[in-house]
Automatic annotation (TrEMBL):
Name of this protein: 1-deoxy-D-xylulose-5-phosphate synthase
An MF annotation (GO) of this entry: 1-deoxy-D-xylulose-5-phosphate synthase activity
Xref: CDD domains: TPP_DXS, TPP_PYR_DXS_TK_like
Broad EC category: transferase
Entry cofactors: Mg(2+); thiamine diphosphate
Length: 628
């Protein structure tokens, strides 16, 4: 196999075009097999094979700086930069990251897997290169059309044009972000290129002109000139060049020779230039090509001889519970609307969008806009529910704080993938949302411990007069009986102890706290256990009861500092009873970047499973003494 002979980008430059075609096919087969074993981003990498090969043949990485926005499509880059043999460890604990990683290779520059950032990195790196001792180094930024829906991309583009930075921007246009791209930037071009009526007329006119005796060739050439003139009007050229950025394209992103020619010419341009490349997400793998929703953007572990599409689309756990709850409230309350940022499928909103299409808003990869738009909806009398991942909520904190919170608006934030998320690593762990939402005055914060709790909490949140956040994890959702579900803003007492220790559990960690209580019981320690349910406002009954114990332990899968535990400790310290308050042990996520691994493995390492909570509790218990 040719692939086995590729250990660095230099090896690519000795191949001819036929060999490159063979290599591209081998890489696609390799990626499918690798992802089938570990899970990971599939469709985006299958679509970027030829583009990656062309980039590494034209530019000399790592001397030339290749940058990947989000990094979803960087598997091929990793393969040709010497990491092929590590793919059996992809997204496994201690193994290969699913995104570019500075710790892995000198060929990787940016490991932030949040979208729309790369043009800003490119602007800064170009400024540094221009002032270095090797100003001829090239900076190349690959960004998808989906990422171009994010406002930060336009800020970076504007500054590239203003500064005249020598950057090659490769616009990888596959009509997709995660779902189909929400943007008009290249929409008119795509419609003109693909419209069957226009294509048929074009072919008929071309055939007729070619058949005209003696002048057919000239007439045909003139028609091509007309096409070029029309492209000047309808293509993105006018948009980019108005910002001071040269534009070329669009070109076939699966034609390696054509890509190399265009990229080589772009490399000589003394300023910012956009090379518009058309690719097919999921190319070469039938199920991905046929997946209209997301082209198998991400895939679970699967059998490569079967179609993994349904398993990839299947909603699980809390996301499925949210989906069902939204359909229910949507039927009962016509003022409820749903807002998401290019993630209608993963957040569980596709069924809502199908049932209530005029009440569903996908704004593209634009979390800041999503939140402020929701604020406007709330001002106008609607009840918006903004469904985004916990990690992406960080991008819209200012808007949640000042555009929603300051105005006291009834916007509900459904924060999916909260807590430790596992194999996508530090950029995707949802560990900041509790610390952030608790800083917004007037924000009610819910944390369901079961699928049934999430449904009850959404109803409660939509009855409030101000903002609310419901944070819930990925993966399995606990299923409980009706008597194990709370109501309103009250906490729920799960277990009554002997006054020695009180465990206050937030969200999914209730299950671990109950396991810890069983372990402690075997050691003769009868622990009280509460399901906090509502982190703010805290239930005063729970706070008062906790204050009667010799030790209080709070447990959460958010940041330990500034999170729920801090909130509870402050509330216990403020109790007005004339006695000494018990110590409060706050267990949570440390202030550090947590690498990828399994959720269970990471929580165990952090002492946030049942045995870990029990061990920390035993260690912290004070010597027995009566509480006055």
């Amino acid at each position: 196999m040719l692939l086995e002979s590729i250990s660095s980008p230099t090896d690519l430059r000795r191949l001819d075009q036929d060999q490159l075609t063979t290599l591209a096919a081998e890489i696609r087969e390799f990626v499918v097999r690798a992802v089938s074993v570990t899970g990971g981003h599939l469709g985006s990498n299958l679509g970027a094979v030829e583009l990656t090969l062309a980039l590494h043949r034209v530019f000399s990485s790592p001397r030339d700086i290749l940058l990947w926005d989000t990094g979803h499509q960087a598997y091929v880059h990793k393969i040709v930069t010497g990491r092929r043999e590590l793919f059996s460890t992809l997204r496994q604990a201690g193994g290969l990251s699913g995104y570019p990683s500075r710790a892995e290779s000198v060929h990787d520059w940016v490991e932030n897997s949040h979208a729309s950032t790369i043009l800003s990195y490119a602007h800064g790196l170009a400024a540094a290169v221009a002032r270095s001792q090797a100003p001829d180094r090239r900076v190349v930024a690959v960004i998808g059309d989906g990422s171009m829906t994010g406002g930060m991309a336009f800020e970076g583009l504007n500054n590239l044009g203003h500064s005249g930075s020598r950057v090659v921007v490769v616009l990888n246009d596959n009509g997709r972000s995660y779902a189909p791209t929400v943007s008009r930037l290249s929409g008119s071009l795509t419609r003109l290129r693909l419209h069957p009526g226009l294509s048929q007329v074009r072919r008929s006119v071309e055939d007729a002109l070619r058949d005209i005796p003696r002048v057919g060739g000239l007439a045909y050439s003139s028609l091509q000139g007309l096409y070029s003139a029309v492209r000047e009007v309808v293509e993105p050229r006018a948009f980019f060049e108005a910002l001071g950025v040269r534009y070329v394209g669009p070109i076939d992103g699966h034609d390696i020779a054509g890509l190399e020619t265009m990229l080589s010419q772009a490399a000589e341009f003394d300023g910012p230039i956009v090379v518009h490349v058309l690719t097919q997400k999921g190319r070469g793998f039938g199920p991905a090509e046929a997946d209209d929703e997301k082209c198998l953007h991400d895939a679970p572990v699967f059998d490569p001889t079967t179609d993994p599409t349904e398993a990839s689309r299947a909603l699980k756990g809390y996301t499925q519970a949210f989906n069902e709850a939204m359909l229910d409230v949507g039927e009962r309350n016509p003022s409820v609307v749903a807002v998401t940022a290019a993630m209608p499928g993963p957040t569980g909103l596709l069924p809502f969008a199908k049932r209530f299409p005029d009440r569903f808003f996908d704004v593209g990869i634009a979390e800041q806009h999503a939140v402020t738009s929701a604020a406007g909806m709330a001002m106008g009398g609607l009840r918006p529910v903004v469904a985004i991942y916990s990690t992406f909520f960080c991008r819209a904190f200012d808007q949640a704080n000042l555009d929603v919170g300051l105005h006291g608006l009834p916007v509900v934030f459904a924060l999916d993938r909260a807590g430790i998320t596992g194999d996508n690593g530090p950029s995707h762990h949802g560990v900041l949302d509790l610390a952030l939402t608790l800083r917004i005055p007037g924000m009610t914060v819910f944390a369901p411990s079961s699928a049934q709790e999430l449904k009850v909490m959404l109803d409660t949140a939509l009855e409030l007069s101000g903002p609310a956040a419901i944070r819930y994890p990925s993966g399995r959702a606990r299923q409980v009986a009706p008597h194990e579900v709370g109501s309103g803003l009250a906490a729920r007492k799960v277990r009554t102890g002997d006054g020695s220790v009180c465990l206050l559990a937030v969200g999914k960690l209730l299950e671990a706290a109950e396991e810890a209580a069983e372990i402690l019981a075997a050691e003769g320690i009868a622990a009280t256990v509460w399901d906090v349910r509502v982190v703010r406002p805290l239930d005063p009954r729970m706070v008062t009861d906790a204050g009667r114990h010799r030790l209080v332990v709070t447990v959460e899968d958010g940041l330990r500092v500034g999170g729920a535990g801090t909130q509870i400790a402050d509330a216990i310290a403020d109790l007005e009873e004339s006695r000494v308050c018990p110590p409060v042990l706050v267990l949570g996520i440390p202030t550090s970047y947590i690498p990828h691994g399994t959720v269970e493995g990471i929580l165990s390492q952090l002492g946030l499973d049942g045995p870990g909570i029990a061990a920390s509790t035993q260690k912290a218990l004070p010597d027995p003494a009566p509480i006055s």
